[in-house]
Amino acid sequence: MHSFLFCRFIANGGRIIQKTVSSFDEVIDDYDLIMNCAGLRGGELASDPNVHPVRGHIVRVWAPWIKHFIHTDDTHYFLPQSESAAIGGTRQLGRYDLVPEVHESERILREMAERLPALKGAKILHEWVGLRPYRRPVRVEAEVIICKGKQIKVVHNYGHGAFGVSLSWGTAVYAAELAQQALNAKAKI
Ligand SMILES: Cc1cc2nc3c(=O)[nH]c(=O)nc-3n(C[C@H](O)[C@H](O)[C@H](O)COP(=O)(O)OP(=O)(O)OC[C@H]3O[C@@H](n4cnc5c(N)ncnc54)[C@H](O)[C@@H]3O)c2cc1C
């Protein structure tokens, strides 16, 4: 959270509690509204079967002599950053495993070096696998659900797939507007 917004949140009595929630039932007694921003697990919480992992494997290398980025397609990109460069990657729908495979790292590096010969000899610093929370379309909407016989307002904001960093600037604002409307509404959303 942006530090200015964080300070306002705390100054207005906001509290942050970190814990894993396995169902909305666990929180409905304590809050007026639930915001479901749980990424890949957002679908499980909402009983929505349309969320799937798209596994992404990235290799981080030391190659400070290359200053420009390259993006030839969704699985071939080179992104120089301050300390190192990230090279991608993979898009594997339905896979949940998080351990990087050596042959994938070698392929990612080899195929990028074919496109960017200056990369030859670059040292691998780190390999990483993450799961993109894929859903088509992204779900940003409000609904009223019944939990333990009680009506509960929920605002969903999940399923951003490969674009969560970029889209979050808009979806977070829209989700916050939906939450405000839901709180202002007397009974139903
Ligand atoms: C390899 C890779 C490359 C990517 N590249 C890009 C890119 O270049 N540009 C871009 O825009 N996006 C990119 N993305 C996608 C981006 O990272 C995601 O879209 C984004 O992280 C989704 O954000 P989110 O907040 O919805 O979900 P997440 O970041 O997954 O956050 C969900 C949060 O909910 C918490 N949570 C989950 N379940 C529960 C539960 N039951 N109880 C309590 N808390 C829970 C989690 O701990 C986590 O903190 C990339 C992703 C990967 C894997």
From TrEMBL:
The keyword Oxidoreductase applies. Keywords: FAD, Flavoprotein, Oxidoreductase. The keyword Flavoprotein applies. GO terms for molecular function: D-amino-acid oxidase activity; FAD binding. GO terms for cellular component: peroxisomal matrix. Gene3D superfamilies: D-Amino Acid Oxidase, subunit A, domain 2 (3.30.9.10). Its main location: other. Its cofactor is FAD. GO terms for biological process: D-amino acid catabolic process. It comes from the Eukaryota. Residues 8-178 form the FAD dependent oxidoreductase domain. Pfam families: DAO. It is found in: Peroxisome matrix. Belongs to the DAMOX/DASOX family. This is D-aspartate oxidase-like. It comes from Plakobranchus ocellatus.
